[in-house]
Structure formats: C-alpha cells, structure tokens
Predict the 3D structure of the following.
Amino acid sequence: MEHHTLESDALFVFGESGLADILPAGQDRIRALAQSLQAYRSIDRIRIVGHTDRIGSDAVNDRLSLARAVTVKEKLQELGVKAAVFEIEGVGKREPVTTGCGSKLARAALIACLQPDRRVTIEVTGIK
C-alpha cells in the first residue's frame, strides 16, 4: 500500500474545493501523483480522504473535506487514473495532526498554524 498526502493550502484556495479552485501548485502535485500511479499494472483501490482544520462548524468542515476528496478523485480520473474501486471520505476536523495552535492566536496566525490539518490523503492498493 502506498500513502500520499496533498497539503490543501498548496492544493486549493483556502476554504474552497472545486476543480476551478485548485491552485497551480496543486495542479502540479495531482499531475505528479497521477503520473506515479501510471506505473501500477493494476490498481485495486484508491482511498481518498479530505481533512480540514478546526475553524468552522462540523457541518461546513464535513462538506468541505468531502468536496475536496471528490475533486481530487475527479482530477485523477481526468488525468487517466483508473482503479477498480475509488473510496471517498470527508472526515472534517476529526483527525488533526497539529498541536500547540492555541485559540488565543490571531486569526491569520491560527490559519497558518493549522495548515497541516488541511490536507487530502490518498492510499493506493494495487500491483506495480
């Protein structure tokens, strides 16, 4: 199994999730991932999970994380990636990776501190 993490701040405009919201660096990262996946003889499963930071409500973050995962899937498919199964999930803010980002930080500092939480993770199972 191969694991990949795409940082959402390099991937999407802050707070956005659509194909038109993918930043140039995000386009490059998805393209590089798609190219590396072309090395597989067959892909059984690609699991794509969207994550957000803790800013905002659960409902907003759940929708945003799922929408980002769906967008990454669509972009990979557009680039020719095929898998027997695509699993898509949005976990919102429930799986943070940051520590030490206190709520007393100014908003801009908090957004910067929480950046690692905003990501899309991809697990690939197949035969190389």
In short: Helices lie at 8-11, 24-37, 58-78, 107-113.
